[in-house]
Write a structure and sequence with these properties.
This protein is an alpha+beta fold. The protein is built from 11 helices and 10 strands. The strands form 2 sheets. Strands 1-5-6-10-9-8-7 form a 7-stranded mixed sheet, with helices on both faces. The protein binds phenylalanine.
Length: 338
């Protein structure tokens, strides 16, 4: 017990004399560590008569606690001292001017979307929006995707709540919402964010589309073609050529994909257009009678066209950007060029 008392007194004195965190840590290991002073002294307990052991054990614990708390106090004191020394050393010069902020501007994707909307609003279309979290009904069923139809695989879907909801894979959902809300004739443009399980240099899991559709009596494919031609010439200039290729979408019949002549090589063929001179920018077609039936429009009376265009694709072409991820990275060095 005397040795223990002496150890405690010596320890407290040593702790008081320490001046750096490192020294304190070394001392802690020497005193309280597995091979430390207290542990070796504790081995003596086993030599005591059994009835004295509990009391001795309790004494050892008291000493351990007192040494630990002395170390903690010292550690706090050292930290406070170090901080105040730093605050004294470091000069904060309030006269240095800050880093200049340039004026902000719209993201290139927003610019394209605005231009897109302006062109169609100029043609008399109005803007509608729909939710990004959807149900199978609006994203697929009412757009004439039957259950288990392979066309569902065209769009790898993010499902939520065990499949009860999903992130919309296209803005065609807004066709359904609008038709259920309003009576024809309609001319609508619907911009928005869409989601697909896809990620590489030309695909991002989130991207933007602009949907357009027009419903009236006696609408033909020629109206669709004329509208898109005007749009392409406004956006890319009159020299840009366009062509339609037959395609398939469950909600349009007939369906087409539209290509425009490559902006990078002017149609001669390059890396961007994979040597073809053409780049696909949108899907389109005549609204399928089944879609009209699903919203209670009479398909004998009403006809219409629809198209859906990927905004990032259009921006990439317009500015010759070769990786879609640049448009989502928010790197100011990239964005400040627009
Ligand atoms: N929704 C289709 C897509 O995302 C595009 C489309 C819209 C096609 C309207 C035809 C009519 O791929």
């Amino acid at each position: 017990m005397e040795d223990l008392k002496a150890l405690e007194l010596g320890a407290i004195e040593e702790i008081g004399a320490v001046s750096t965190g490192e020294e304190l840590e070394k001392l802690r290991v020497r005193l309280l560590g597995k091979k430390g002073d207290i542990t070796s002294l504790m081995k003596g307990i086993s030599k005591l008569p059994p009835d004295e052991r509990p009391k001795a054990g309790a004494e050892f614990n008291k000493v351990k606690v007192s040494i630990s708390s002395a170390i903690e106090k010292k550690s706090a004191a050292i930290k406070a001292q170090e901080l105040s020394a730093r605050l004294n050393d470091e000069i904060f010069d309030i006269t240095i001017s800050g880093k200049p902020y340039g004026p902000g501007h719209f993201h290139p994707s927003c610019d394209i979307m605005d231009e897109f909307i302006d062109i169609f609003v100029g043609l008399g279309f109005c803007v509608e929006e729909g939710p990004e979290v959807e149900t199978d009904e609006y994203n697929f069923q009412r757009l004439n995707f039957p259950d288990d139809h392979p066309a569902r695989d065209m769009q790898d879907t993010f499902y939520l709540q065990n499949g009860k909801r999903l992130l919309r894979t296209h803005t065609s959902t807004v066709q359904v919402h609008t038709m259920l809300k309003k009576k024809p004739p309609l001319a609508v443009i619907a911009p928005g964010r869409v989601y697909r399980l896809d990620s590489d240099i030309t695909h991002s899991p989130v991207f933007h589309q602009v949907e357009g559709f027009l419903i009236d009596k006696n609408v033909t494919f020629a109206h669709l073609k004329g509208t898109l031609e005007l749009f392409v010439h406004r956006l890319y200039g009159k020299n840009t050529k366009l062509r339609f290729r037959p395609s398939f979408f469950p909600f349009t019949e007939p369906s087409a994909e539209m290509d425009i002549s490559c902006q990078l090589c002017g149609g001669k063929g390059c890396r961007l257009c994979k040597g073809t001179g053409w780049i696909e920018i949108l899907g389109a077609g005549m609204i399928d009678p089944n879609v009209f039936k699903a919203v209670g429009y009479d398909p004998e009376e009403w006809t219409g066209f629809a198209f859906g265009c990927g905004i990032e694709r259009v921006a990439m072409l317009k500015y010759s950007i070769d990786d879609i991820r640049l448009l989502f990275g928010n790197d100011k060095r990239f964005l400040s060029q627009f």
